[in-house]
Amino acid sequence: MELHEIPVILEYLATYYNRDTPAPLPNPAAASYGVGGGDDPVAKLLNANACVACHTLDKRVVGPSFKEVASRFAGDAGAAGKLAKKIREGGAGNWGVVPMPPHPAISDTDLKQIAGWILQQR
What is the pTM assigned to this prediction? Predict the structure, then answer.
């Protein structure tokens, strides 16, 4: 992380992760952002864990699109594990200055399903 990135990160965290204001809910009109819907189990996981608040199938929003992520990991035999770890632990600096919050409550089974689906989106 670069020193000039700290104010951006602090503003983001203060806005979306503070004691007084709950994080905004995903826009129901835009729910699933091109990742399917209805009874699709992966779309349900992406919506339930607020993934679609920052990511879409093919357009950058706050974070990279799922297709961008899949392209970056193309050809990497350990991609599923690395992606699952990134989802669980969060982080910053891989796609810009806005950090991805950690998602420690997502089960290993659900992480495997989400990561596998993302990696198929090339």
Answer: 0.71
